[in-house]
Design brief:
Layout lengths: L9 H8 L10 H26 L1 H40 L5 H54 L8 H14 L2 H26 L6 H29 L1 H15 L4 H6 L3 H53 L5 H42 L23 E8 L9 E8 L4 E5 L6 H8 L7 E6 L2 E2 L5 H5 L2 E4 L10 H6 L9 H10 L3 H5 L22 H14 L4 E5 L7 H14 L4 E5 L11 E6 L2 E6 L1 H7 L2 H17 L1
């Protein structure tokens, strides 16, 4: 795969969106049917999105499209009547005939109607623009909420897949404007068709052929638009990696957390150069498509202008010969121009809809992402609460979709009720993945995990998650108040200030919180609040630990909970954990092996396997891998203190 190509797995996804071209003439009808069917399916999906948002949007735009389709024809007819009346009155006046007062009155009446139509057209256009802008905000909000709600149900493993991120990036990018853009173009077509049909009827009086000549000349333009819109969509899909890289390098340069390192290591120019290199390649391909498309459009425009000129001459000849009233010249030429403009609008809007429906595939495929981490029972059970739970892994293996490498391989182990288990191993040994499996954030590729003797997949997932109090290594930092950051571990219940303060005290966070400007109500991070406070990584970690203390959990899962704390603060928190984990099943990961000495069981992981297990005394006596890791770390601490 060359630079800028789709990430692994994307070719299959793209093939599903792309209709295979016919291999022979017999396959053409079926191909056309499938393309048209998909087009209308996507269009219906978009209309359903708008209907879900607010039905009034569809009704109001439909009514406005009919009105705005009729008004141009009415205006053209009135203009022709004005010119014909002026020509007739001039002829009578030159012969000294007719009542000039009556003539002026008749002309004024027509002009009033003409300006009334112009005024109405302006008013309805403004109303349409207003509704479209309001609808744009409402529909974008509705689609974004759908995406967020879908994202909260998608399997965690999906977030590790490049293909999933492709869908998410494409869906999010198009959420704001595509649905309304397609809807607006659809009703623009409706208005254009109403006007064109009316003008065709008018032109029929002098030449039934003329309208069809205009339409026929526009066919090449339609073909060009559709072909090159499709080329543009396919190019953007294939070069999605380029766009993600461009966004990544731009975000790096504007990320407040990265700016220090970029400046000190002088990385800015390197990333700017990478951005420019990728953009040049991306732009080169896009420019080639644009240039070819517009060259073809210029050729078609020359043909169209020539045909229009000849038809204008034909109508002018009718006026000169006396077969056509002079006022009707403006009516007929205006009708020709309106039909040509209507066809152009029809083609442009249809091409926009076609392009938009291709992009909407991004949203459709994302919304169809299947969630496999669901209960296997029709009526899932709920785990017992406020007891010490037993967790068993039976021949459990795990690998990410699309890869052959096992992160966990054929693992069998039991976490007894109330037991404290420490996971030990080098980075990449599978410790965090094991935690994600026993909390059912992932499902194993092979094997079974039991909770209190039942397959973990039989439990209601929301109720299951509620029994875990978890601190991950990459814990969350939320741009809300201190109080909310702590209370997020029990979001189902109102915030209990007393519990918040107790949790902060137990996590050794109370002292620094009391020094903040507004204490527990202090806004953290400066994303939204000018006076937001930026905490140190150690202070954030204390808040994450407080979150675990605040939670009303039965099983504690701690993945490097004290990695950013000094040894004294770490020991204080572990002393607090001793009381917190009483009568609870506890699993934690720590690279500081001194914390493992009091554990009931230590599991030593390497390459996804348990190579040793036992308590500290037993493993030290074995003089194996744990002994080596513990002794090496202890020797380093002793050397550092000398």
């Amino acid at each position: 795969m060359g630079p800028g190509g789709p990430p692994p797995g994307m070719h299959a996804a793209l093939d599903k969106l792309r209709e295979p071209k016919p291999k022979n003439i017999k396959e053409v009808p079926g191909y056309v049917y499938r393309v048209v069917s998909k087009f209308f399916y996507r269009l219906f999906y978009i209309f359903s999105l708008v209907w879900e948002t607010k039905p009034f949007i569809l009704f109001s735009l439909l009514i406005l499209s009919v009105i705005l389709g009729v008004l141009p024809v009415v205006s053209a007819k009135i203009s022709a009547n004005v010119l014909n009346s002026l020509a007739k009155d001039y002829e009578l006046a030159s012969l000294g005939l007719g009542d000039q007062t009556q003539m002026l009155s008749d002309i004024m009446r027509l002009l009033i109607w003409q300006f009334a139509v112009i005024f109405a057209t302006s008013i309805f256009n403004h109303i349409k623009a207003y509704i479209t802008r309001i609808a744009g905000e409402l529909v974008a909000n509705h689609v974004n909420i759908k995406i967020m709600k879908k994202a909260k149900t998608v399997d965690l493993a999906s977030f590790d897949s490049p293909e999933f991120y492709e869908k998410l990036e494409n869906a999010s990018r198009e959420a704001g404007n595509r649905p309304l853009q397609i809807l607006s173009s659809t009703f623009t077509i409706a208005s254009a068709v109403i006007s064109m049909v009316s003008f065709v009827v008018i032109l029929w009086a002098i030449s039934p052929v003329a309208p069809w000549i205009i339409i026929a000349v526009s066919i090449p333009s339609a073909i060009i638009n559709f072909v090159y819109r499709r080329k543009t969509v396919q190019f953007m899909r294939h070069r999605s990696k380029d766009r993600r890289q461009l966004a990544y390098y731009k975000d790096l340069m504007t990320n407040k957390d990265m700016v220090k390192e970029l400046r000190l290591f002088n990385l800015s120019d390197n990333f700017i150069e990478r951005y420019q290199t990728i953009f040049k390649s991306y732009f080169k391909g896009m420019r080639r498509i644009f240039f070819t498309e517009h060259m073809w459009n210029i050729a078609v425009a020359v043909l169209s202008s020539t045909v229009n000129c000849l038809l204008f001459v034909f109508i002018a000849n009718g006026v000169i010969s006396g077969n056509t009233p002079v006022g009707n010249y403006s009516l007929y030429t205006g009708a020709l121009s309106s039909i040509a403009g209507g066809v152009s609008t029809f083609i442009s809007a249809t091409a926009t809809i076609y392009e938009g429906t291709l992009f909407i595939d991004n949203l459709i495929t994302f919304m169809k992402e299947k969630n496999t981490v669901v209960p296997t029972l029709a009526e899932p059970i709920e785990p017992q609460r406020h007891i010490a739970h037993k967790i068993e892994l039976q021949n459990v293996s795990f690998k990410y979709s699309g890869t052959d490498r096992y992160i966990i391989k054929n693992m069998s182990v039991t976490f007894e009720p109330g037991e404290t288990v420490v996971l030990v191993g080098l980075n990449g040994a599978g410790k965090t993945t094991l935690i994600k499996l026993i909390t059912r954030l992932y499902d194993p590729t092979e094997g079974v995990i039991l909770l209190d003797g039942r397959d973990i997949r039989e439990y209601d997932t929301k109720a299951l998650y509620s029994i875990y109090g978890i601190i991950f290594q990459d814990f969350g930092k939320y741009a809300v108040s201190v109080k909310e950051n702590i209370a997020f571990s029990d979001i189902e219940n109102p915030i209990d200030d007393e519990r918040v303060q107790k949790a902060a005290s137990e996590s050794d966070a109370a002292d620094f919180i009391s020094s903040l400007p507004n204490g527990y109500d202090t806004a953290l991070m400066r994303f939204f609040e000018e006076k937001g406070i930026e905490l140190s990584i150690g202070q954030w970690q204390k808040l994450s630990v407080a979150r675990a203390f605040y939670s009303n959990s039965d099983i504690l899962i701690l993945d490097e909970p004290t990695a950013s704390l000094d040894a004294l603060a770490e020991q204080e928190i572990y002393d607090q954990f001793d009381s917190l984990r009483k009568d609870k099943t506890t699993v934690f990961v720590s690279h500081r092996l001194s914390s493992a000495t009091t554990a009931d069981k230590i599991l030593v992981l390497e390459n996804g396997n348990i190579i040793e297990q036992g308590n500290h005394r037993e493993l030290m006596a074995q003089r194996g891998r744990y002994y080596e890791l513990f002794s090496t770390q202890a020797a380093r601490y002793i050397a550092d203190s000398e």
